[in-house]
Amino acid sequence: MSNKNRIVAWTIVATAVAAIAPVAAMMWLSRQAVAQAEHERLARYAESVIARAAHSFDETQRSLKSLSPLLLLPCSDEHIAQMRLISVNSRSIEEMGYYEHGQLKCTSWDSSVGARRRRQAEPVFTTADGVEVALDQRSFVADGPTMLSIQYGAHSALVHRLRFVDVVLEKGVHVVLARNGFGPVAQYGGPVAAGVAEHALDGLGRQDVDGFFISTVSRDGWTAAAIVDGDHVLEEMTGQQRWFLPVGILLGIGLVMLVLRVSQARLSPLADLQLAVKKKEFIVHYQPIIEMASGRCIGAEALLRWRRPDGSIVRPDFFIALAEESGLILPLTDLVVDTVVREMRDTLRQDRALHIAINVAAQDMKTGRILEVVSQALAGSDIRPEQLWMEATERGCMDIASASLTLARAREMGHSMALDDFGTGYSNLQYLQGLPMDALKIDKSFVSTIGTGAATSAVIDHIIAMAKSLKLYIVAEGVETLEQAAYLAERGVDFAQGWLFSRPLPVEEFVAFYCATLADYGSGPEIIRGPQPASTDSPAALDA
Ligand SMILES: Nc1nc2c(ncn2[C@@H]2O[C@@H]3COP(=O)(O)O[C@H]4[C@@H](O)[C@H](n5cnc6c(=O)[nH]c(N)nc65)O[C@@H]4COP(=O)(O)O[C@H]3[C@H]2O)c(=O)[nH]1
């Protein structure tokens, strides 16, 4: 998959995630918030149920204990009146009964039970101070739901189970109470699914079972749980979502915009170039430089090519300007220097007359950084500094003071310096005089006017004359026809470069080209010497 396709795929996925994730996250957060608030509310209900149960039980046992020991005649009017008074005044106790030898003798309603005689119930649990609790006791006088019988000594108090849990509940809330070590005592409130109430008493704290929210609390021998069903929670959720959803949507919009900006930046030519530099997708081609007088190949210009992963080649016109603007030209220059040293080392060592010219960016001309890069690359390579030329454009030499310094230092190190694309900028004679140069390259735009009769065709003669007056060697670029070559040779142009001789070639093809011209014309003397004197009028570096 190409880088572009990868970014597009990434953008699609990231946009979908950016749009959905915040909304989903906000919905999840809102659910969490509702659940948290709900469990806190339920825990408060469970607490109040325990308080209610403890209160009912305490009140009942206090009342029972107040009758013991019995100081009145059992089942006397006074005794019955006292039991009735307790039943009426107590919020929990419905009826009271008095037993003799385990048999009901009288109740808070009457002194004689007659046919309603019954035995005191078997307790299911007994507290530490002797209070017993029995289940499912019918009323002494009426029909109705069974009650708990709380017994102490000869007295029993009948208490509705509801009295242990009847706290004020909001709609949908269900509470359940158990006596620890015994089991469920009572439940009350909205409907719950079968088994949920029992399950609620199994654990403690916050629980979620089958869509029911449960909070269970245990204290003072009682365990109480409050339960609310999912529908109720969802009703609450819609309320919360009113706040969370817009926040999620806004976040989603923000994230989507961010993703689009990032992918736009990653799809930009600069991001493309950055990635290519990182992945070293660059190669160097070599365009032969021909000595006009002999026809020999005396060197080559190293030209950068961007080879994309699909194998297509991008010419430097499309990326050099961007690389210079963004500073990426520096690693690219390093790459060219390293590649030239690696690829051309053997050939350069075999023929000391051969040179390779590299292009130096404006930034490097200004700072002189290139000199350090080159000297490091050449160290131990056995390539002579004279075999590495540097080409600077007029643009790179606009800051004459710093450019002069770099040029002078380069020449001291033994490199020859050429001014590239001459005539395309704002240079004039004075400007040229201020720069310690060895050679001047005539831009192809002037070469292409030769023989055309165009008004500008005379300019090339002036450039040649100017270079000669400054004693600079002349390299003509973009020579495409025999006519152009003959014209330039006639006017004493030293070297030429162009499609007439060869296009820029991959290293193997360049070496083959060079070997072929070597066979035809033989090798020349070592025409490049250094270090050069830093004077402007003596381009002795290129003396043949
Ligand atoms: N029409 C025509 N064109 C010819 C002919 N002979 C050579 N050329 C082209 O002319 C350009 C010469 O390079 P340049 O003036 O240094 O101009 C170079 C140079 O300024 C820059 N460049 C290339 N490689 C590098 C590099 O490694 N570093 C830096 N800083 N700039 C580079 O990119 C420019 C363009 O390079 P290329 O596209 O390789 O274009 C090259 C070359 O392919 C011909 O007969 N006819």
UniProtKB/TrEMBL annotation:
Q: Which organism is it from?
A: Herbaspirillum seropedicae (strain SmR1)
Q: Which is a Gene Ontology cellular component entry for this protein?
A: plasma membrane
Tell me the InterPro entries matching this sequence.
Answer: CSS-motif_dom, Cyclic-di-GMP_PDE-like, EAL_dom, EAL_sf
Catalyzed reaction equations: 3',3'-c-di-GMP + H2O = 5'-phosphoguanylyl(3'->5')guanosine + H(+)
| Residue ranges constituting the EAL domain according to the UniProt record | 266-518
Q: What is its main location?
A: membrane
Any one GO molecular function term: cyclic-guanylate-specific phosphodiesterase activity
> By its UniProt entry, which CDD domains does this protein fall under?
EAL
Task: Specify the protein name.
Answer: cyclic-guanylate-specific phosphodiesterase
Subcellular localization, as worded in the UniProt entry: Cell membrane
EC number, UniProt record: 3.1.4.52
Task: Give the SMART domains listed for this entry.
Answer: EAL
**Pfam families linked:** CSS-motif, EAL
Q: Which Gene3D superfamilies match?
A: EAL domain (3.20.20.450)
Q: Does the keyword Ligase apply?
A: no
Enzyme category, top tier:
hydrolase
How this chain sits in the membrane, per its record, is: Multi-pass membrane protein
Keywords of the record? c-di-GMP, Cell membrane, Hydrolase, Membrane, Transmembrane, Transmembrane helix
